[in-house]
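Can anyone check this?
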Amino acid sequence: MNNSLIQQQQNFEAQIRPYQQDLKNFSLWLTRDPHIAQDVVQETLLRAWKSFDKLENPKALKGWLFTICRRENARRFERIQPKFSEIEFDAIEEKNQDYDTSVEAFVLRQTLPKLKKEYLKPLLMQVVLGQTQKEIGKELNLSVAGVGTRLFRAKKQLESLLTAA
């Protein structure tokens, strides 16, 4: 290595050193895995080193490093190639049509009819059909706030009935 390159490396290391722990913490927060976080930090520092001469404002170094880190983390997901299952879609659909025989499902089936009718229908439309409050309101001729109130009361009443059972 020539002296110029060594000097650049020392300058780079001196400038990033105050931010390394913050960068590691940020990466860990992003990835939730210490090993992956370490890899992301290494890739971040490598990219930063390669582009260090393009950093115009040294006061922006921390934000610049965090941006690189965030982008490096995003690149991890770009590299992931989804694996397709060999199971036919129809076979999955058939399996999901089985009747749930768990105790929880039994208790829930026994309890749901005890809910007031004005609470039961919006609850089933949201939970079973996956409709939004806006869609439920349109179908039942209620405001979005009215639907929200009914869903809240349905859940509270259901909770009360289930704890009493």
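Reply from J.R.: I decoded it. The chain has two domains: 3-79, 99-164.
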